[in-house]
Design goal:
By secondary structure, this protein is of the alpha+beta class. The chain contains 12 helices and 14 strands. It is globular and about 80 Å long.
């Protein structure tokens, strides 16, 4: 069974190569804006412009646009036009669904996403080092340059993206790998309850509990972030300020955010890898982060309560990145042959259910202790983790009885908890 994975590398171009990358970047952002303007003009005149029509015009652009030939590969330009076409398709889909439309925008050079390649050895070539560590990449019109990164799941290279971030020029490579073959996993089963006070609480099959501390990356850098934002705002409002000074303040702020994001990503990778290495089954709850972080402002007619407190909670939830964590946990469990199960939260309600008697009692978010009439006394997170473990063991038995068919195993789960 093959699997698709994305690998990220940082590029180390020379000064001449940086200038060449920026030149390519500027030409492609101009292509995006020109193609968008052409589509808007065609619509105003009642003409239906298709992706194939704009791709045919690339042969004329290659001749007419200065510095285009020898700098921009045909695949790079086609990917930019394809992304614009997809943006219009998504726009019309949202319009038909009655959602917020989000019309495709013109892009500045600072806000352009970058470009991509559709096929390996067509515009780009990746040479990985021994063990998939670091290596070199050759880009059309730029040349061969060094890159750093670790390919944890090497495989057949399919396509790639190049983009510019606060860390510098980056390369994302999409590979098809055969490493996701399921094998017999070892270790106890565990129920995992994600949270904010503790990043995760686990109830193991052997009766032990463990907690993963929440590093709160954003809180540790908040003062520096506020100060960097204040300096940027002051520079932007100043009557006499050079463009170079403004760009320097903007880059400093972007680098701080990138530093926090890198620390968060590193933490999530390490925790998810450790959990997968030590358990044969991980049962957790399905999280809807959009609903969890919904604003409490309300409306003018019905204003919300505790808006500032809810705003702080939302910031803490997003800083912990639960969605990315579960995504990493899911694909790493798939690679290691570990059973990863997500319980339907609305049916099971692990935070409100007693793991001993199965009784359900509504708790306020401020109640951090689970005390039941049956005599069960645990912390709220430990009780929820134990409920998820019991559900996971029951669901595992059902999946095995049905030959691992998850679709057949779907059904009511609230009454499957051991009592």
């Amino acid at each position: 069974m093959s699997s698709i994975r994305s690998l990220s590398f940082k590029l180390y171009p020379s000064r001449a190569q940086r200038d060449r990358l920026w030149q390519k970047h500027c030409l492609l952002v101009d292509l995006w804006n020109a193609a968008l303007e052409e589509r808007i003009g065609a619509w105003r005149h009642g003409v239906h412009l298709r992706l194939s029509d704009q791709e045919k015009a690339l042969k004329h652009i290659r001749v007419d646009v200065e510095n285009w030939s020898g700098c921009v590969h045909s695949h790079e330009a086609q990917v930019v036009l394809k992304r614009l076409d997809r943006a219009f398709q998504n726009f019309f889909k949202r319009v038909r669904a009655g959602e917020r439309s989000g019309f495709p925008r013109f892009r500045s050079r600072q806000r352009f996403r970058g470009w991509g390649y559709k096929q390996h050895c067509n515009g780009f070539k990746v040479e990985l080092g021994p063990g998939g560590r670091h290596g070199h990449v050759t880009l059309f019109g730029v040349g061969r340059m060094r890159m750093r990164g670790v390919a944890r799941t090497p495989g057949r290279i399919l396509k790639a993206d190049v983009f510019r971030s606060a860390r510098g020029w980056m390369l994302n490579v999409v590979v098809e790998t055969d490493c996701a073959q399921r094998e017999e996993a070892h270790g106890p089963a565990a129920g995992l309850d994600w949270g904010v006070s503790d990043f995760a609480t686990l109830a193991n099959e052997n009766g032990e509990y463990e907690a993963v501390a929440n590093p709160r990356h954003l809180r540790g850098e908040m003062e520096e972030l506020v100060e960097a934002q204040r300096r940027l705002s002051s520079a932007a409002k100043a009557k006499k300020v050079s463009l170079r000074s403004l760009q320097r303040h903007r880059k400093q702020l972007a680098r701080r955010h990138a530093k926090i994001a890198s620390r968060r990503k590193d933490f999530l990778h390490k925790v998810s890898a450790d959990l997968v290495a030590r358990h044969r089954l991980i049962a957790t709850e399905r999280l809807d982060v959009g609903n969890m972080t919904r604003s409490a402002k309300g409306s003018k007619q019905c204003p919300g309560k505790n808006v500032a407190q809810k705003s702080g909670l939302n910031r803490a939830i997003l800083d912990a990145a639960p969605s990315n964590f579960l995504k990493m946990l899911r694909y790493k469990a798939e690679e290691a042959g570990v059973e990863f199960l997500e319980a339907p939260t609305r049916k099971l309600r692990p935070s409100q259910r007693c793991p001993d008697c199965g009784a359900q009692k509504r708790k306020a978010l401020s109640e951090r202790q689970h005390i039941c009439e049956c005599g069960c006394s645990l912390s709220r997170d430990e009780a929820a983790a134990r409920v998820l473990l019991q559900w996971g063991l029951t669901e595992e038995a059902r999946l095995k009885s049905l030959g691992g068919d998850v679709d057949k195993a779907a059904g009511t789960v609230a009454d499957q908890v051991s009592i």
